[in-house]
Design a protein that fits this description.
Length: about 270
Amino acid sequence: MRIILITSGTKGGTGKTTLAVNMAVVLAYELRNKAQYPVVLLDLGLDSGTATMLLLGDVRAEIPYTLADYLMGRIPDPLSTLYVKTWQVGDETFRLVFTASISQYPGQVRIDRYLLRGLLNAIAAVSPFYVIIDPPALGLSYDVLTTLLEVSNNVVLVAVPDHSSVRAISNVVNLMRELKVENRLLRPILNMLNIKYPVDASTGLPWTKLVRDVVNIEPHVVPYDELFPIVRQALEIESLKLSFYESPALDSIFKYVDYLMEAVPPEGQK
């Protein structure tokens, strides 16, 4: 299975979770005839559980066990934290496996590297093609980021047109160089770029160049789309609600998924 980390470093509000959820859903749909559970979304956003809430469809939904229960040692079996979301499209169904990560006490939960590896080993029993990791942004520590970089096969950096965001992904790149895993970088995503203002006013340089200079890879642009916040407020997943004909951002996400499947095709799956 391919373990792909999608991270903005310590910068919040970059739309990282929106991208992670939509890419996971699109991948699950594209691979629906290849495996029963082709994709697992590992929602580590214990501070918010946004991905979990979107997939549950109801913030009040009661679930027996969450990822926090496993990480806090309350349950021994990490498979108890996995849930399946099923969608019907015409005569076909497709499924996405995800961790339920809502926590009443997010500040008390620690992402231990041994427990994380245990979780990934358990996920391997599901035989997915891809595991998409959506980590926390706020409160992301050096140790947790190091662990996530160590267990991931590939890394997608997400930035927005903001200098603090570019600095945040620069810190991730520097850490990857220290760990000698810089070769795991995929095309970064420059998210929510207003195509009317593609240039940074303070430097006179295009935002794409500022990101490229940090990552040494040409970024993939996902343009700002006012339809996305509307869908999110209704607790809907954009790729299931919108058409890529009406949404340039969604069209760009589909194109990134095509790139992802070509750059890191699934291996070792039946």
